[in-house]
Amino acid sequence: MVAGTKPKLRSIIAGAFTLVATLAVSASEPLPPWQQKLEQSAFSGTVLIAKSDTLIFQQSFGLADRENQRAFDNTTVFDIGSLTKQFTATAVMQLVEQGKLSLTATIDNYLADVPADKKQITIHHLLSNSSGLPTNPPSISFYDVIDSESYTRQVLQLPLVAAPGERYHYSNLGYYLLAQLIEMASGQNWEAYIQQHILLPAGLTATGYRLADIPQHRLAINYGADPNWLQRGFRLRAKSRSVGDSLQHLRQQPGKRWFEGAGGFVSTAQDMQAWYLAMQAGQILTAASWQLMFTPHIAENTEKGSYYGYGWAIDKQHGFNRINHTGSNGYSYATFDYYPEVGLFIFTASNDIDNYPYPLFTEIKQSVLETVVAKDLAEP
Questions:
Q1: Strand (E) positions, 179-291?
Q2: What is the pLDDT averaged over residues 302-320?
Q3: Could you report how far apart the first and last alpha carbons of the chain are, in Å?
Q4: Mean pLDDT over residues 147-161, rounded?
Q5: Domains of the chain by range and CATH?
Q6: Beta strands of 40-118 (E only): which ranges?
């Protein structure tokens, strides 16, 4: 791990924060232990915690752009990676509600020239990561431009890692195919459909991929320490460097990418909070469709009690049911945690996955859950 922004610099550039009700402290009282640790860590990004429509905590840390000394703040737009999948899954469920797609239909009802070993793959399998398709394509770079028609044929020719429905296997390629099915069923570009029917109705104005229309100065720059062959050979620590913002590749070379439907979206903490509130209120989809989205369809890890629904992972954390997902482009990192039993939402995003403090955020989630539950029990 490389060292990130130094604590004394972070104290200067840290964004404003809000503490209310459950976690409030006066100026004379010490900060909660987890907040002190977060202030002193190398974390670069933003944290938002809310209970229903009440904001509990929000603070930004570190630099969104080190070269220009631009701090993270409430308007910073960052990559949410595979959180994109929940929007793709929601769009599919809308089209299922409209009778334009069927969860039990096999993909050869929609796609041409499906090989025999894939004729049993259903839309349910694609949504629940149980299609047996590989995770990622071989021999293609992350931002390479593709032709959808020929690339779909290539995906369908790849060997399966398991029989359809046999077991869980995370597949970005499966969600690429879902994006193609959205376009076939709706007659719209997959992202245009999501923007029109999901994002804007839910109040998300800074979320999307090529249609998000985000000013470049609001985008976080991503950083990573990629060792070269010499550093790997001698086990030398590489220096963290800029790899650009998450939409830079589109400005440099417009065109389709293989991960569309599986990733690519950027967003803000405020938009993610709006999405959580829409989910909690049962908007956008029918109650039956939301239930299917959050159903533990297939086991990810039986020992840890982790399952996959449609675009969501479902498990228990600290004794509470959790609907969650993470997302990354290899440099950024975002987490979305929703605890429906207590109405709690915890969102984090970082532009430096190398310095993301995983154990600390586990501690934070446990502490916040305990505080919220204690407050609920204390109320008449």
A1: 221-224, 241-245, 256-257, 265-267
A2: 93
A3: 48
A4: 94
A5: 62-377 (3.40.710.10)
A6: 45-51, 54-61, 63-65, 70-71, 78-81
